[in-house]
Specification:
metal ion binding, manganese, tRNA-splicing ligase RtcB, ligase, 19 strands, GTP-binding, single chain, RNA repair, 26% strand, 8-stranded mixed beta sheet
Length: 474
Amino acid sequence: MKIERLDKYIWKIPKEGNMKVDAIVFTDAESVNDPQFREAMKQLVNVATLPGIVKYALAMPDIHWGYGFPIGGVAAFDVREGVISPGGVGFDINCGVRLMKTDLTYEDVKDRIRPLVEAIYEFVPAGVGSTGDIVLGKKGLRKVLVEGAEWAVKAGYGLEEDLERIEDGGKIHPADPSHVSEEAFERGNDELGTLGAGNHFVEVQMVQEIYDEELAEFFGLEIGTITVMIHSGSRGFGHQVATDYIRLMRDKLKEHNKNLPDKQLINAPFEHPLGQAYYSAMNCAANYAFANREILGHLVRKAFWKVFGRDTRVDLIYDVAHNIAKVEEYEVDGKRRKLVVHRKGATRSLGPGSEKVPSIYREVGQPVIIPGDMGTASYLLVGTKKAEEKAFGSTAHGAGRVLGRSAALKKLDYREVLDELAEKNIVVMSKSKKTLVEEAPEVYKDVDRVVQIVHEIGISRRVARMIPLGVVKG
């Protein structure tokens, strides 16, 4: 595999063989020389062979191996000639993150971190197979799949003003529940308002550093402000939607998919009935995830109220998706074209003035949230016009794994992980010892480096850095 350096943090694999476009990666030299990185790059090269792909197959600095597409991958396909692929979205459809700010400071909470984490642990169902108190039945769940976060607010699980602080208002169309299987309905029936396991978390944070005073003031943040970050997705519902359509595309589009370099790149032409059915079902799962995070945000508010009183403000800054495919317009070869933009482990990063950015943020650009792991920092950034020009309006979504879950379990010890976090004065509560080891800080890339790269390239701009005080895991 030939890799050319175009700039300090920009690398290219030139088009050759069956590749229809070049592959471009935003990363540093250290990552390029890592053998694990090469495996993910092979996946990006495979993506570059898919029908209708435009400009280039792109990867963010948090790139690592995934199902079909690498995680950290971005690819855009012409709506008429291109495809839609479940592997380019991921099994946890609309896995995403929300950032909330409080009117509390570190001085207010420093002696009450443990009771606050315990309250969050009490209010937020977490862990593998966790279920919540919301059981709707099929008729009620159909409304969630259409209305998304709006349903949650109507049902009393959030605030009306939250909706203008969620990507796409927390409701994406088309979303027709008739394209969703009975198995997906069954799996999603009792998982609304649950965190799940794996890398999902609720984290109490403190703003430690400000990079842009004017933007930080705009967001209501200053050094010492207490924030909360929530990372979760569409739970078993989204996983089932992905599973269903991977199987359907294999069974019904054998001829179309016969020459794939990797069977995990299974796809459908976007305009084919099966492509449209998956798109609609995927949007249903995205709406489920938006509703889920809205409910989780409400449960976190209740935990803060329990510890600090009902007058405590816990306000949403923004909620973003980072596993999704969307129809958007970008310039390709001097023309505006309608594209199906796949972001798998990537965050939308639209600049000032974009009509897709909520009006309250349009003058500064879309808020971008990049979490680290439970032992390191997380970031608030804003989107840029450069991201729209260079990266289909995209940026990184997190630190990115460097160690698989099974490898982490072999290499790391539960007690040592806890002790390491305790040394940093981070209070952790987890449903599973196994999850805590699998998600230890050592298994992730340096999030500071990832953010430095996207900031220097100019596809998102740093506003504030937050450090963890307390974490709830599944």
